[in-house]
Design brief:
2 domains; alpha/beta; 291 residues; globular; 9-stranded mixed sheet; Rossmann fold; 4-stranded antiparallel sheet
């Protein structure tokens, strides 16, 4: 495998003359799925939990797609730098067209790399992550181990890697869930209209834990984006992940999940460190590993 060549964007690049389309799947995905500020707040929180009084500066976003986390990390301070790594050319090109030109001076501190996340990266970073269950693409355990070894090798001593996963009684069901999403700005300022986000779990095999799922979008005016994204995953469990982290040499790991409001029916938006996890209908957990 050839070593990928990093691409360094320019903060002075020309702005796109074509606005984001209302049916652009990447823009719709960011509105529907990503909570960038929430994610970054948590990443900083777990870093400070391990390193009181120290601020993280260097960040790597594995499976970065449109690099929303990487750019916002860089925007949080002039001494912050971010690297976004993804194997797919198309979302990286999208980030360069629709996100970086509006990041102003922070764009100089974001490096987008087209490459395999299983290749160790330099420079070493304080914090790395693989969120939105992206690492489930490794359907064979040896592939996952290869990624975790590379992720660990790309961290400074004491650096943290954060991955998330989901499970629970309802997580393995075949289902179609619809969620209404409000109008919101795309990265280039284009206003996206209200739409419905559709998550479909099409197939699940309990023998090999293979999950086939789709994301669809339904716009208010009747337009639809069918199979905007396809996920061909292995649904790993928490012990499978933590055992793999130990095997590749991470010296510490912990599990975090969201707390509940007073009714016990809704999440309160805050993640807490857990030693036990209620096997509810569906839970999402974040595993934090320290080199």
């Amino acid at each position: 495998m050839k070593k990928p060549v990093p691409h360094v964007p320019s903060a002075n690049g020309a702005r796109s003359k074509v606005a984001v389309s209302a049916t652009d799947p990447h823009a719709l995905y960011e509105v529907a799925v990503q909570g960038v500020e929430w994610d970054l707040d948590f990443l900083e929180r777990v870093w400070r939990y391990r390193h009181p009084g120290r601020e993280p500066k260097l960040f790597r976003e594995d499976f970065c797609s449109t690099a929303a986390l990487s750019v916002e990390w860089a925007r949080r301070g002039r001494d912050r730098h971010a690297w976004g790594v993804d194997l797919d050319r198309e979302p990286l090109a999208w980030a360069r067209r629709y996100r970086l030109p509006w990041a102003r001076e922070a764009a100089k501190r974001v490096t987008l790399v087209r490459g395999d996340v299983r290749v160790p990266r330099r420079p070493l970073v304080d914090v790395a992550c693989a969120l939105n269950f992206s690492w489930w693409v490794f359907r064979e355990r040896h592939q996952l181990l290869g990624y975790l070894r590379a992720a660990r090798a790309g961290l400074k001593p004491g650096g943290v890697l954060v991955l998330n996963l989901y499970g629970g009684l309802g997580a393995e069901k075949l289902l179609v869930e619809r969620s209404a999403k409000p109008a919101e700005n795309a990265p280039d300022g284009t206003m996206l209209p209200r739409f419905t986000y559709v998550w479909e779990q099409k197939e699940f095999d309990p023998i090999n834990r293979h999950l086939l799922a789709y994301i669809h979008f339904e716009l208010k005016d009747g337009r639809r984006v069918r199979k905007a994204f396809t996920y061909d995953w292995r649904m790993y469990t928490v012990p499978e992940l933590t055992d793999a982290l130990e095997e590749v040499g991470f010296r510490h790991h912990e599990v975090w999940s969201e707390g509940w409001d007073k009714t016990g029916r809704r999440g309160n938006g805050t993640l807490y460190k857990r030693t036990r996890l209620d096997h509810s209908d569906t839970w999402i957990a974040y595993v934090v590993a320290t080199r």
